[in-house]
Amino acid sequence: MLPGRGPNGRAAATRLSRLLGTRTSWTPVGDGEFFCPGCGGDRNYQRLTGHRRFALFGVPVLPRGETGPVVECAACRRHFGTDVLDHPTTTRFSAMLRDAVHTVALAVLAAGGTCSRASLETATAAVRAAGFDDCTEEQLAALVEALEADTGRFTGEPCAAGLAIELHEALDPLAPHLAAPGRESILLQGARIALADGPYTPAERDALTTVGAALTICSDDVTRLLAAARTPS
């Protein structure tokens, strides 16, 4: 039998690991809330840095360098790389999605230029479904008017620089965390708002093209989706 094989070998290896080994001592350097991949939900975490030491009889005796940093879940105690913090919590993700739909609705309404009753009804339904339960048509109309007063008249005109920046600010952080169907759904919601009162105007199409770019949807797919939205289901 080869050394280390069989019951006797395993027992010897266990005894040796108790005599000699490496121990890591962890030091907290921060905390917060994150989405834990192990638990599958929002949890508290500690950010830890570690110092490794060679241990004899379980007693650290010689430094072996630093390790980490890592993120430790307060619930399951598992350690993860710090890149796990790039994923938004479910609470934050819901807020990002809600704000994205709201911004897209405003952008399309502003591009339409008229804020027709049909467009306002469609936009309000989309914004409410996204999480703004108390949104009203009057509120959206007032916000579009405020945008016009704040930035100069751009309603009914191609997507202005300020509005394009707002779209990118709302959509750029969200896009990496959405699968393709989710990104396409946001674009289609904007398309339905634009089509509620008739065919796309050039300004509406320009705004929706900006939405598609911010959501990292390629131009060919944007064209396909905008055409599909015009087809009655």
TrEMBL record:
Pfam family, one: TerB
Ranges where the Co-chaperone DjlA N-terminal domain occurs: 99-224
UniProt name for this protein: Tellurite resistance protein
